Predict the 3D structure of the following.
Amino acid sequence: MEKIIYNVSDKPPVGKLLFGSFQQLLAILAATIAVPNIIGNGMSTSAALLGAGVGTIVYLLFTRFKSPVFLGSSFSYLGSMASAFAGAASISIGYLGLIMGASFAGLVYVILALITKKFGTKWMDKVLPPVVIGPVVSIIGLTLAPNAVSDLFASNVVNGHYIAMVIGLITLFTTIIVSLAAKKTFKLIPFIIGIGAGYALAAILTLIGNLADVDILKIIDFSKFENMKWVPDFTFVEAFKGFSDFSGAGEFFTYFITVIVAYIPVAFVSFAEHIADHKNLSSIIGKDLIKDPGLDKTLLGDGVGSIAGAFFGGCPNTTYGESIGCVALSGNASIYTIFMAAIMAIIISFFAPFITLLSTIPSCVMGGVCMALYGFIAVSGLKMLKNVDLSDNGNIYIISVILIAGIGSFMLTIDKVTLTPVASALILGVITNFIVNFIRRKRPEKSNDKE
């Protein structure tokens, strides 16, 4: 268990609550608004942030305010969302496809929740023991590592430059120093202080770069303020126009099947990641969320929250490793902090200058703090292995397969469905665990041979 300053049911003082919530928002911001930017087709980053806030509140309601994690735009559905637009005869139909697809993916979660409620979760201890789930959680952080490092060297005008790297590292070291050496109040918000220090340095260099006309110093793109949208473009507004764009029932049915095939299989992939995230968060807060509030409730919250996110912003939601890493880094697991972060996301989605200001945070600054965030996720997984016998070759094989598959980016693409490295590593880990345990049962006297 990490050193938790505020437990799930604790309510921090107002000032610390607001700063802690803003820190959570910063943790999920980059990834949440990246998804609509990647998909394009006029999708709104503000609407995606609103959908994330609404989806998180839905999740908190279903989990009875017992699971402190923020929901944001899911990268697992990028291919599915692209298919919704590719198979559409108009942009409006494409937006309608986003909502339909997310609804069917959410329905998969609802069905899985009902199955879990009926048959319980004892099967999970056999299928997903610590020797499997631990390295899988580590993979979640490790597979994000290249993103953090590439961002560390990226700025507004040039990638791979050492100036960006220096800014990112100053951000990282500021975060570390504040987290370890600052007073209790500041220890709760190392993420904010680190980003603030990096942003301030980047702003000074950008000002010098603009005055001296030196491109490599122009780290921040302030031109984003010139094209601000004051009201989010909600997905459902455009989607409802799509019904009139179908030429007939046949076209609607064909498109309907295309969307189902694109979304439903991915829901099973994200289900595996859902379990890994909640196992990780459980180890951090010292409470088994699979049992209380229960996997059935976390699945319902994630599924319905995903539908809500797509309804407003087009992007299905999922629990965020960045949010979990923020809990571990700050020691703030208060559910009030997560709830306030969701409220903040909803409010600022309507405040264009603030959204734009957040979007100007340089990649190198976010890369610096993400080196710590993603690292905390990876280490949390390794901590799950503390009671695993690593002198047992069977356990070594299970862990080895998972780590190598994940770090090596083992992926399978079947038509429009892609198994992410995390999902692939989990599946291979489950299979390896089954084989190892089968051999142990058949040859108990030899199955634990050691070097």
